[in-house]
Amino acid sequence: MKILTVIVLGVVCGAATAAASDKIVCYFSSWARYRPGLGMFDVEDIDPFLCTHIIFSFTGLSNQTWEIEVLDPWNELCPDEEGGHYCAFKRTVGLKDLNQDLTVIVAIGGWNEGSEDYSMMAEDPRKRKTFISSVV
C-alpha cells in the first residue's frame, strides 16, 4: 500500500509540475465588447491568472503606408489619441500589472482583412521592411 501511495503521489506531483510549465494562450476578440447583454466581454472580464499569453485581435495592415494600423480606434485607443475612447490596447497591456508573467501579443489581420495586401507587402522588400519596422 505504501508503494502505491508513493507512486500515486509521484504521478500527481509530476502532472502538477508539467501543468505549471504549460502555456495557456487566451485569444481576446476586441469586438466582443459590442455584443449585447450578457454576451458582452471586455478586457476586465479576462482573468490574467488563467492565461500565460493573451492574443489581442485585431490590428491591420495599411495598404498606403505598409505599417500596422488600428482597425477600431474608438475601442482600442485612448481619448488622448485620435479617434480613441475605450483604451482597449492599454487596458489589455495593463493586465500585466496584475500578473507580471503574462505575455500580451497582438494579432495582425483578421477575416475582414483578406490576404491580398499581405501578399503585396510580402513580395516587396521595401514594403516588407516598413511593415517589420512598424511591428517591432
From TrEMBL:
Q: Please, which domain of life does this record's source organism belong to?
A: Eukaryota
- EC id: 3.2.1.14
Keyword tRNA-binding included in the entry's annotation? no
Tell me the Gene3D superfamilies matching this sequence: Glycosidases
A Gene Ontology biological process term: carbohydrate metabolic process
Class in the EC hierarchy, top level: hydrolase
> Which Gene Ontology MF annotations are present?
chitin binding; endochitinase activity
Q: What is this protein called?
A: Putative chitinase
Q: Which organism is it from?
A: Crangon crangon (Brown shrimp)
